[in-house]
Amino acid sequence: MDQIGIDAAAHDQALQGLRRINALSGAVGSLFTEIKALAAEQAHSRPLRILDVACGGGDNSIALAERCRNHGLAVQVDGCDLSQQAVTIASRTAAGKHLKATFFQADALRDPLPLDYDVVVCSLFLHHLDETAAVELLRRMGQCCRQLVLVNDLIRSPLGYGLAWVGCRLLSRSPIVHFDGPVSVQGAFRMDEALDLTIQAGLGGARVRRSWPERFLLSWRRPALVLQAP
């Protein structure tokens, strides 16, 4: 999935398989819980702006936007990805669901990220990165978000490997997904390692908790400014 120049038909088949896997993973539920809590604290007249970096075909971005809409939360969920094909698919899917979401091409590790988003999320991308790149991604997410960083990703463990091997074969016919799923778990971080990444990235006070199925949710709130008395 990370290879540049991958065959378009094979890429689309892989994205369809990932769509089914994402739908059953419950990842959006863990993201929504944090966003709902943040929205309840706001007194904004404007929607809460959310950016999904490395969004792929937009499955989680779109599902999150739909979940928020169904619960009456005023949000604007956008996404960016390195792949123009993925951006095109995400834009088409969002339009078909009558969602006002904007998807654009960007390299989350190199291109400037917009600074006007309250929440920056990332799902199932961190495990593709080595430690140095993962720290850089978290650092950039922390710098560009106004309030909250959320990262949902795989946990490296024997159970996670077994679930990926079986699940990818049950839910997708794509050879790319069959290969990528187990390999992704092998390249993933443990929860303690993920927490260490946040320290290296300067995201002090970040929290990491386990979520189903054998994933973690990393969350970091930007500290509120404390005004000193003269």
Description:
The chain is an alpha/beta fold and 230 residues long. It has a single domain (8-41, 48-221), classed as 3-Layer(aba) Sandwich (Rossmann fold). It is 47% helix and 20% strand. The protein contains eight helices and seven strands, in the order ααβαβαββαβαααββ. It has a seven-stranded mixed beta sheet, sandwiched between helices. The protein is globular.
Short description:
The protein is α/β, with parallel strands linked by helices and 230 residues long. The chain has helices at 8-25, 27-41, 59-70, 84-96, 131-144, 158-171, 175-186, 191-200; strands at 48-53, 75-81, 103-105, 117-123, 145-154, 207-211, 215-221. It has a single domain (8-41, 48-221), classed as Vaccinia Virus protein VP39 (Rossmann fold).
| Level-1 CATH class name | Alpha Beta
Structural class: alpha/beta
Number of strands: 7
* Alpha-carbon distance between the two ends: 56 Å
Characteristic terms for this protein:
single chain, 230 residues, alpha/beta, Rossmann fold, 7-stranded mixed β-sheet, 8 helices, 7 strands, 20% strand, disordered C terminus
Q: What is the strand and helix layout of this fold?
A:
Blueprint: H1 8-25, H2 27-41, E1 48-53, H3 59-70, E2 75-81, H4 84-96, E3 103-105, E4 117-123, H5 131-144, E5 145-154, H6 158-171, H7 175-186, H8 191-200, E6 207-211, E7 215-221
Parallel strand pairs: 1-2, 1-4, 2-3, 4-5
Antiparallel strand pairs: 5-7, 6-7
